[in-house]
Amino acid sequence: MNDVRLRQLGSTSLRVSPLCLGGNVFGWTADEHTSFRILDAYTAAGGNFVDTADSYSAWVEGNQGGESETVIGRWLASRGRPSDMVIATKVSQHPDFRGLSASNVRAAAKASLERLGGETIDLYYAHFDDPDTPLAESAEAFSQLVEEGVVRHVGLSNHSPGRIRAWLDVCEERGLHAPVCVQPLYNLVERGIEDDLVPLARERGLALLPYFGLARGFLTGKYRPGSAEVDSPRAGKARAYLDAPRGRRVLDALDAVADRDGVSQAAVALSWLVDRPSVVSVLASARDPEQLADLLPVNHLRLDEESAALLTRSTDPEPSETS
After folding, report:
1. With DSSP H G I counted as helix, E B as strand and the rest as coil, what are the percentages for the chain, rounded to 5?
2. Whose CA is closest to 283, among 66, 29, 42?
């Protein structure tokens, strides 16, 4: 299971597994012991790409932010960092480091490195746009971190296509290190970026690394009409997808492909996503090793054309939905 075919992340030298392990649950729904077990199982299966943010999980009562980075840092220290491990983290939402001003970006990167250990952040994202800071100031701050060796590569998350293009243009005009990837919300039932961000990514050579690839858990197949309540903080939003006609259509399509290939619906949904244009790796998190086991096949599973087309049709807008 560990012979995973790694993918090149955009124009960089980084090579990452198709499944990127989301660290948002570490220090939240997964305690440190369980988080270590998840990380152990993920790397044992050939995964090498872990995503977190300095704000995870500040929303939990009693937490301050940085809990996920701390757990990952302790795991790396206890296990020894694998030579090909790629760690991504983000700045702008930590309670003590809000926004993308130059001074904040620098201070937050230092704090993240202290929690994660090591000397360099492989991939550093601007987590959310900051309209109160001049874009050029932010772009120069990230680029300077690359120059200094604090960061290897820059990414953007939750930025509009217009702002992404503007950031790239500033970097081109000023000779700065430009973002190499974008982390957008994208999945089988939320395909809006196909109209604008995907064309931009293809035009400018950006890698896409979607989050919420399982639509808050809906695409795992656990949410069905009349089914029992699911114990998850995201259950309400996940179940809401059933209200749309495409919600039930996609479940039928997922069931058909999963039954034929002998894998989970989650693995099918993520496999569809990882082979979309410009997508290099897809984020998904698991709060225990059992949940992770359902995700791991995405590192090897490739859907045939018929299965991919069936899934795509299941969430193509109906004429009444676009009129």
Report:
1. 45, 15, 40
2. 42
Distances (CA, A) of 180 to 67, 151, 199, 283, 302: 27, 12, 15, 17, 25
| Cα dihedral: 260, 46, 25, 238 (round 10) | -20
Sheet holding 151-157, edge to edge: 207-208, 179-183, 151-157, 121-126, 86-91, 49-51, 19-22, 282-284
DSSP H/E element including 123: strand 121-126
Per-residue pLDDT averaged across 298-321, rounded? 89
Q: Which helix or strand (DSSP H or E) is residue 304 part of?
A: none
Scanning the structure block, which residue is given the tokens 């953007």? 156
Q: What is the pLDDT of residue 232?
A: 60
Residue 323: per-residue pLDDT = 41
Given a cut of 80, is residue 291 above it in pLDDT? yes
How far from 248 is each of 158, 187, 254, 255, 266, CA to CA, in Å?
A: 28, 15, 10, 11, 15
| Unique residue bearing structure tokens 């974008």 | 182
Query: Binning pLDDT at 50, 70 and 90, where does residue 240 land?
Result: confident
Task: Tokens for 192, please give them.
Answer: 């809006």
Interval 84-109: pLDDT, tens = 999 999 999 999 999 999 999 999 99
This prediction has a pTM of 0.94
Residue 316 to residue 113: CA distance in whole angstroms:
43
Per-residue pLDDT averaged across 185-191, rounded? 97
287-314 burial by CB neighbour count: b if 16+ within 10 A, else e? bebebbebbbbbbbbebeeebbebbeeb
Residue 223's pLDDT is 83
Query: CA dihedral defined by 82, 209, 65, 114, rounded to 10 degrees?
Result: 40
